Structures are given as structure tokens and as C-alpha cells.
Amino acid sequence: MTIKTELMDSLIVAKKEFKILFRKKALIIPLVLFPIIMIVFFGYGMGGTVKEAPILIVNDDTGRASSSLVQEIGSFTEKYNGDPMFSVTYTKDMSQSEAESKINDGMYKGVLIIPPEYSESATKNESTTLTLLTDSSDTTTSSIIVNYMRQLLSKTGSVSLNIPNIYGNLEYLDFLIPGVIALTVFMGSVATTGSAIAGEKEDGTLVRMLMTPISKRSVILGKTIYQLILQLGRAVILILAAYFLLGFNMNGSWLLISLVLIVFTLGGVGMGIVMSSRVEDMESFFQLNMLVTMPSMFVTGVFFPLSSVPDWMRYIAYCLPLTYAIDAMRIIMIKGQGLNAISTDLIILSLFAIVTFTAGVRLFRREA
Amino acid sequence: MEPIIEVKNLVKVFHSRGRKITAVNDVSFDVFKGEIFGMIGPNGAGKSTTFSMLTTLIKPTSGSIKVSGFNVDKQDDKIRPLIGIVPQKLSLYPLLTARENLELMGNLYNVPKKEMEEKIDYYLKLVGLEASADRFTGGFSGGMKQRLSVIAAVLHDPEILFWDEPSTGLDPQTRNVIWKLARKFNDEGKTLIFTTHYMEEADNLCDRVAVMDSGKLVALDNPEILKEKTGSTNLEEVFVRFTGEEVRD
Ligand SMILES: Nc1ncnc2c1ncn2[C@@H]1O[C@H](COP(=O)(O)OP(=O)(O)OP(=O)(O)O)[C@@H](O)[C@H]1O
Ligand SMILES: [Mg+2]
User: Fold this and answer.
1) What is the pLDDT of residue A13?
2) Residues with beta carbon inside 6 Å of ligand 1?
3) Which of A226, A230, A240, B8 has the fewest CB atoms within 10 Å distance of its CB?
């Protein structure tokens, strides 16, 4: 069999896969929406950022120190998508319980109460206590406000606060998006490859196809071509959606991103083939898939930095290929680094692809 | 008569959940060019497994098979274009239309586009599926699937047609169509090998019939001669004579 016929055969397979995909309305919608929903939910809900969070400053002090503090908060216009993060209102002579009820009513996300003796203590370098009330039912906004205030106060020196190194809430989306892209491509390529093969085993169409003159190689190649187009397509949709819905920073090269995603998709396809060779039907595949991809989802630092997890979790993460894909994606997208910086990640991902593909081709037998 | 398939000492052993199943146990026979060759035998006798080996789908544990002079072990890619297969488990893509299923098969067998379309139209009409050509096969009845599957197997004009249980579960009308098709393909010079649980069908169609039981080939001859030899009036009796009354797992 010549290379040309093998290639033509694989295109027949890829075409068939697409035709069927476009008819699986129930599949195509989640396939596209899943990553977008994930970004929107996690982006807004978990870390995210805040937009014009209403903040009230109750300033009972008339000294210079407090006014400069107030000014600083007021002029804080860290922008997200063109919107300032806080919208500040000022008042004085308000009791704490009164302030609390304002938060209860949802009027303010946070209230900072500056006591009358603040400026005096500041000049004397004595420590004072500012009261910060936040709407803790809104975890995102409240933690951002708390963190911001802590940082601010730590600069004044009068209040010594230990600021834990939280992973830049202000850039959480920038942190999240590369991870979600890698996760999407990984889960997508493993699940769609594996479940399609398991389904074709179940309904006999895989065996039927292998009865024809087409070679095993062509079938696998066809499915791979299909997956590369599908997964890169999903990545593009995801990136566009994230860009237009939420906005994010892209500091590196799209070409490198494509390279990482292509290599990683190959690994995912290989893994899907290997996994599907262990099962006889779709249902068992999905069970197996849960077992294999769930840890990847939660351990590899899609949603939080690996530096913040316990050691044992980090060691597991280092065994999972998704970790390296996410790392590479972040290095490119956030840090804007080049090929050198991701070479280790790329080598590991290539090994992953080679190993799973070799195993997949071996395990993908005519004997169903 | 010229053999088109030569089977020698064919054995297939499956290992399934720690159990060893000898599905085909030292079977030897020839199939002659141009004949209609039937295989009968109780459930689990090894008919489909034999088919799978003859059609290069699974490798024999031991023994040899030649199809059209090619060895199944080493020249399977020479054999596949020469044969057409209608598997026992009819396997069509439910989200492709009848025509798309056929086109896919035609393409996989490298049938030139124009010729393929002509054949598809011709056969769809022949089996009465032209009105359903653009429907998804997911909604097809068993009879429609069977008719469509046989078209899928002959678009590339194979020398040998393997047909595993062509009429199981079909109504008399559809069975009639199937029989007509079988004769037509045979008249065109194709060698036909099929399995069946309908003794009447084997009796009517076959030049020779092979009786399998528990992996063994227990009889092989012309239906009339088998009846004569066993003193039976019909093939049903022949079948019971060779395979006993016992029900199989
Ligand atoms: N892939 C397999 N793995 C394990 N055992 C198998 C496999 N395929 C077939 N068998 C076993 O081999 C034996 C022969 O099966 P086969 O399907 O060839 O019988 P058959 O004559 O076609 O039966 P039927 O008339 O029911 O179609 C059976 O016991 C079956 O369970
Ligand atoms: Mg069978």
C-alpha cells in the first residue's frame, strides 16, 4: 500500500468523523461550550477580578495620614477591561453595626473604618487597628478587597501585616486561561477519541471498517487528523471567547502555542486509543476516563498554582502530562517566553505522545 | 473443480477471563470457485469465528488458509479487496444516511466515484431502498439494514461474498429478496459463503453445506447427498443427526 493511498484513506476516515460529529448536536454543544463555561464560571466565580466593587470608607480621623490613605484607595484605578476595580464612597461618623447593615443590604462590598486616632498614631509610629468589613458571601470580591487593603497598609508601616503570596488575584484570568486551554484540549482529545472508538466497537462499525482494505495506520491517522482539527478549533474558539468575553493578556507567540497544543493533542489521542483498547463499550470507557482524567483536572494546577499545594499533590502532578502542558502554556502566554523556556515541557510532552501513540497503535488490533 | 478457498487444520483458541475456548478445532475444507457454500451448526459452533479467520479479521491460532491463492497470514492486504463481507452483527453508521454509508464503503474499497454512484442507485433500487436513500440508518428496520449491508459488501464487485446469517430475524418477504440476491450474485460468478440457522434456506440455496458442531466440522456435502447418507427427508433431520438434540450454551 502506498503512502498516497494511506493518506487518502485517512482523509476518508477524518471526513466521516466530522460528518458524524456535526450530526451529534448533543455532543457538539458541550464540546464548544464546556471550556467557555469553565472560564466564565471560574474566571468570575472563583478568582477572577472585581469591577467597580462599591467600597465605603468611614473616615473619623482628620489627620494627614488618613487622608493620604483615603486618597490612595480612591485613586486606585487598576483597570480590568477598562473598568476601575473599586468605586469608592466616603463618609464619617458611622458605627460598625450601621456599616454592617449596609453590607447586609448589599450596598457595599466592603467598608473600611478609620478610627479618629489613626493619623496621630501613624506619626508616632504606634500601631493602630483599622476595621475592614467585607461581604464575605462574595468570596472573590471580599478576598480581593482584603488583599488589596493588606498590601496597601503594609506600605504605610504603621500596621505590620503579613501578606501571604496570593497568586495575583488581579491576574487570575490570565493565570486560568492557559490552564483551561490545555485542560480542554487534553480532556477533549482523550474523551472524544476514546469514546468514539469504544462506541464503534460497541456498534461493530470499527470491525466493519477494518474488514475493508484500509490499513490500521490509516484509520488511526484519520482519527488523529480529525482530532487535531477539532481540538485546535476548540482552542481557537475558547481563546476568542475568553478574549471577547473576559479579556486576557497574551504576551507570547501563537505559533508556539499551536506547537504545544499539537504535540499535546497527539498525546491525548494516543491515550484515548490506549484506553479504548481496554474496554468493550462506551460506558466502561467513560468510567475509565473519569478515573484517568479527574486527577489531572484537579491536581495539575489548572485552577491554582502548584506552589500552593502540598508536596504529595505536587509529586502526583509531576507525573501527569497535563502539568507540563499547562506550564508551557503559561510560560508562553503570561511570561511571553520562547522555545528555550518551554523545551523541557515540550520534550516531556513529545515523549508522552510517542509513548501513548506507539502503545495505541500496538493495542489497536483488528481483532475486536 | 477449482478451490478458491483452502482451509487446512484450522484452529482458533480464545482466552477469555481465564477460560480457554476452542472455538474452531482442527477444521479442513475447500470452497470451490463459483459455488454457494453453506455453513450450519448450533449456536457457538464456530461458524462466525471461521468467517472471521477466512476474511482476515482475526488470526488463526494454527493451521493455514488460502483465499484466491493468497495466504491469510502474510497477504491479508491482497485478500481484502477481493472479498465482500456481510457480518452477523450488521454495522452501519447510524448518523450517516443509507447513501453515505454506501459511499463510505465504496470509497474504502477505492471504487471510482462515477461507477460507485451508478451502482449505489442500481442496488438501492434493486432492494427497494431508493426511497430511504437519504435517511439515517439509525432508524432502519432489521430488514432494511440487512439489505443495505449486502449492497455495502458488493459495491467493489468482490470475487467471494461472505454472508453471515443473511436471513436471521427477517420477515418472509425480505428473506425472499435476500435469496434472490444470493442467486443473482452467484449467477454473476461470485462465490458465495453463508451461514444460516434456517435449514430450508441451506437446502434451497447451497451447492454444498458444511455442518459444524463445537468447533469441529462434522459433515460436508451436497444437501441431497447428506439427506441420502443419513436417510433423512429434510436437512433439519440431517442437522439433528449430526449435532444431537442437546441445547448449547
Ligand atoms: N472474541 C472472542 N473471545 C472469546 N470467545 C469467543 C470470541 N468470539 C467467539 N468466541 C466463542 O467462540 C465460540 C464460537 O463462537 P462463534 O461466534 O464462532 O459461533 P457461531 O457458530 O457463529 O454461533 P452463532 O450461530 O450463535 O452465531 C463461542 O463459544 C463463543 O463464545
Ligand atoms: Mg455466528
Assistant:
1) 94
2) B 14, 16, 21, 23, 41, 43-49, 88
3) A240
Lookup result for grid cell 443495505: B148
Confidence grade of residue B233 (pLDDT, cut at 50, 70, 90)? confident
Q: Which residues of B touch A19 (CB under 8 A)?
A: 95-96, 100
Please choose, from the candidates A363, A142, A366, the residue with its C-alpha nearest in 3D space to the C-alpha of residue A274. Answer: A363
Q: Is pLDDT of B85 > 70?
A: yes
User: Nearest CA to A350 among A252, A230, A265?
Assistant: A265
Largest CA distance in chain A: 90
Q: What distance in Å separates the CA atoms of residue A324 and residue A248, rounded to the nearest whole number? A: 21
Contacting B residues, span 62-101, partner chain A, CB-CB under 8 Å = 77, 80-81, 85, 87, 89-96, 100
Residue owning grid cell 477494518: A210
Give Cβ neighbours of residue A172 (< 8 Å, ≥ 6 apart). Answer: A43, A46, A47, A48, A49
Domain A53-162 superfamily per CATH = abc type-2 transporter like domain (3.40.1710.10)
Identity of the residue numbered B117: E
One of 1.10.132.30, 3.30.200.20, 3.40.50.300, 3.40.980.10 is the CATH number of B3-243, namely 3.40.50.300
What is the pTM for the complete model shown?
0.78
**Residues, Cβ < 5 Å to ion ligand 2:** B 47-48, 88
Q: Is the Cβ of B55 closer than 8 Å to some Cβ of chain A?
A: yes
Say which DSSP state A43 is in: I
* C-alpha cell belonging to residue A61: 480621623
Do the Cβ atoms of B108 and A366 come within 8 Å?
no
Strand duo B191-195 + A79-80: pairing: unpaired
Q: What is the pLDDT of residues A166-223, one digit of tens each?
A: 223 335 677 788 888 999 999 999 999 999 999 999 999 999 999 999 988 899 999 9
- Count how many Cα atoms sit within 13 Å of the Cα of residue A290 in the half-sphere of its side chain: 5
Domain ranges of chain A: 53-162, 172-367
Confidence of residue B1 (pLDDT cuts 50, 70, 90): confident
Across the range B105-134, mean pLDDT stands at 95
Does position A79 have pLDDT exceeding 60, yes or no? no
Confidence of residue A161 (pLDDT cuts 50, 70, 90): very low
Classify A355 as helix, strand or coil.
Answer: helix
Q: Are A213 and A7 in contact (CB under 8 A)?
A: no
Secondary structure letter of residue B9 according to DSSP: E
Write down the ipTM of this complex. Answer: 0.89
Q: Is the pLDDT of residue B231 over 90?
A: no
Dist. CA A362 → ligand 2 center (Å) = 27
Residue of A340, A341, A344 whose CA lies nearest to A323: A344
> Between chains, do B107 and A205 touch, taking CB under 8 Å as contact?
no
CA of A211 to the centre of ligand 2 (A): 16
